[in-house]
Amino acid sequence: MTLEQKITRARTRRHFFQDCGVGVGKMALASLMGGAAFGGKLNHPAKVDHVIYLFQCGGPSQLELFDYKPELQKYDGKVAPESLLKGKRFAFMDTFAKDPPKLLGSRRKFTRHGKNGIYFSELLPNIAGVADDISFVRGLSTENFNHGPAKLFLNTGSVRTGRPSIGSWVTYGIGSESQDLPGFVVLQSGPRGPRGGAALWSSGFLPTAFQGVPFRSTGDPILNLSTPPSIKPEQQSQTIEAIKDLNELLYQDTKDPEIHTRISQYEMAFRMQTSGPELIDFAKESPKTLEMYGVEPGKGSFANNCLLARRLVERGVRFVQLYHADWDHHNDITKPLDEVCAEIDKATAALITDLKQRGLLDRTLLIWGGEFGRTPMGEVRDAGKIGRNHHIDAYTVFMTGGGIHHGIEVGGTDELGFSPEKKIDIHDLQATILHLLGIDHTKLTFRFQGRDFRLTDVGGNLIEPLLA
Amino acid sequence: MPPGRKLKPEQIAAIEHWVSQGFPMPESMHKAKRPGADHWAFQPVRRPDPPKVTAENRVRTPIDRFILARIESAGLRMSPEADKPTLLRRVHLDLTGLPPTREELDAFLADSHPEAYEHVVEKLLASPHYGERWGRHWLDLARYADSDGYTIDAPREMWPYRDWVIQAVNRDMPFDRFVVEQFAGDLLPGSTVEQKIATGFHRNTPSNYEGGIDFEQYRVEAVADRVQTTGAVFLGLTVGCARCHDHKYDPISQREFYQMFAFLNNVDEVDKEADRKEFNRPFLELATPEEIARRDAHKAQVKALQAELEAYKKALGPEKVSAAKDDATKDDAGKIDPGLAERTANLRNLRSRAPKVTSTLVMRELDQPRQSYIHLNGDFTRKGSNVEPGVPSILPPMENASAKPTRLDFARWLVSKRQPLTPRVTMNRFWQRYFGAGLVGTENDFGAVGDKPTHPELLDWLAAEFIESGWSMKAMHRLIVLSSVYRQDSRLRDDLQAADPENKLLARQNRIRLDAEIVRDASLIASGLYAPKVGGPSVYPPLPPGVYQVTQVRREWKTSTGEDRYRRGMYTFFQRSAAHPSLIVFDAPDSTVTCTRRVRSNTPLQALTQLNDEAVVEFSEALGKRIEAVHGADTDKLRAGYLLALGREPRPAEQDRLLRFLQVQKDSRIASPWAAVSRVLLNLDEFVTRP
User: Fold this and answer.
1) pTM of this structure
2) Distance from CA of A51 to the nearest CA of B (A)
């Protein structure tokens, strides 16, 4: 660390401990789903209003997708130099220990795309087609090489459970525009749920009103959204009316303001019952749109979720997170990788194109990436097959949307893709996302167990070159 | 930089030196900022005399004097006592978590004895459900759950610990013993099985055994969590802040954090990959006679098959046997003697079907204690200087501890009479459960930046009384619920809104939203479906479809049938990564870290749950049937509905409104108009609120 960096950090820390967040924990909680508890005050004008996070679970191999490394191909099969591995820790150290790891050049064909000629492999032809709309952050590093903790770190800024997730922080901080849908929605696709489960969208020590609401791929999008089959629609509205009147009578007697909050929550629940089914009904989407995403109606696929994400953002939802499993290619980086790329390529590009066509992209930030990347060394678990291990030092995410440059590459990795040219870490990514939403990451704090916590802990520098 | 001029070189050098030293806080600032020995919470517990008050007629217990004195000095009055139905519902919910049944209500209303309320209190304190309610409060602190957490999140059997807590609370085990057994029951001389089960308290930490992890990292994480939990639960101090550096506000150094860590660092938990298979070590087998019989039978079967196999091998001759060994791949299946293959497979199958035996996670000390270190920046890989077990120097030292003090010495110190924090913090949490907020608002932070007590003398008096009562939890509950301050009406008053908007003076009671489990329990009582069984393995009430989709390892939820479908909410199997949604939606803690106070949110998802969840529909229908069975006019039936669901008579305006609703339902010819009315009742704010 340079002297300047150290002083900056010391200032930030002092600010963090003395100036921020005092009294927030004591604020009366009148947290409607739409309202922010932090006061809804932005720290500076927001560049975007919405976030769509396309979370690729398991650690996509940047080296097979878009971090083109001809040098790595040159040294393919050579034992990785010890200088590279010294002092590093990896998951599954035992497999590496048995046999010194060998460098693995990508077998994929890379070509240049867009006006800046950015490399993409053949695996993502559709995303390559929108190269001028997206920007890469390279050499991203994280802290833990296991899936659960690394996912927690990306979402909550800590490898331990119990902290609020980024979507919770954002809706706590600035609320949501939607009055009839949750402000923070979680969608899932793929063969299984993400490792880490509900902790990834937990509100931690923030009020539970800010936790992510998982939408379900079958049945009601929100649990208990439908009126039970035994109850007629008009009975439902009569019931809610009666509840309201009786609650109001109780309020007249007790004067407890919490009763009025409950009345308004029942009203919002009723609105959600109308808006929810409308949200997931794709009937009014044109066949062209459905084709562009590759949507198969009624199937809980990544493509469906991408279209749903656009519809959520259209309706004012603040933070939409899609989890897609599974990119954990230890054994085999050939066919299984082809398959998951095919699942996401078309729909990702369609979502970007669609948002752009509808004028939504300017006010939305879209992020695509996993919890870490994969090693330049191959990993052999089964004879005859080769995969890659988890790598936390130099992975890639891409972004598009308002407030950032498009078609550029920020950061970089060495010629083997092992280390970053300049370290950019997860707290930097989190700080940048908050910044684009108009939030200073050092000011969004919550006092818990005697300390003012924030998403970025004591780190976080904006990824300046990315900002428009 | 100073405006308009440059720093002098020696000033720059001084700053550089300070930076290179890692920004140490100057000693003078340490002293100024840190509460030393004079901070209120570190003072010995005194027993102040209860003050004189004007409203002597409102004094039922010494507690009332402390509260009344403050109210009177603010020129205010206590609220009147709540009416009988309110009082009964309140004390039932607070002591047992179950609202009164219709019969209990009728009996209380008919009882004109001047001590009718006192009799109810005694009955409730003797009820097995008292241990469930106050046990569940304790389980929040213990971060109790039925699964391992983290990535794999497999089921674990901690319910024997949960049942130990319920039984200990019911037996009114003195709190000092209650703590010692949970901390170090395994180290007590002649430790019993029960005392070992009690040590599950600190084994409720989540455990990670995902492929590729470093076991030592997560073991250290669990030990650090135990130190932090101990700090929050007993000391009311945020000792976790001192894990990476000295505490910024309180006199707890990083060294002292690791001294406490050293007490808890010697449990025989897995710390290396080679022991992966024993990831849940140490545990204690609690086989039932049936399980032992099943296991013995299984062992005998295995033995028999082994013998048969050996005999067969002998008959076959060594050549053919070794051929089978070498070529035991599917390609050469033809070469293997079919009889040998079959017998081998049978034995393998049988072995894989070893009957399950109940076991539970416990503490067990290593023969050779681990060396503990200061972990630089809290990083488990960066070991600083060695530390030995010890307690923070700001607090009274350990007495009679062995030369190298153990976890047992630590436990005894936590509840030693000279250590002032444990009784204060515990009494404050009791108070918080009864009034919605503690006398110290920051219930887990009694340090320098925590709130000051609103009634410091009362807090001390309660702490002193607690110790003098022989650490009797029941005695303290009795004292509080018999007080006038507890029995007050909870209506907001205009004069109080102006003078005391946060109700710190407690000139009225507070309405408190029910805990998640209790929302279910209240529905079970109202609907008459309640199954009163106490304890046993956790149960699986119906779960909405799709909830388990989010877990990493797909698991089966075997929906319970019979009485287990209608057990109290606290017995619902708690899967950390996908807890039952009706619990989470009403703010049950996620059980990853200790929870000393639950959040009480008020969200549309709660409304959707109460309106549409199939379980609530089932409760409504059952309540509807109970109402319909009442003889008489609609007004009689409606009255019965109110008594069953809310424990009081309807007021005229309420009756009119619901009769109107009932008529509309009847006109639309729905199958069960009274189920519809019941559904309204179960959705009222009053239903989910302790009055």
Assistant:
1) 0.81
2) 22
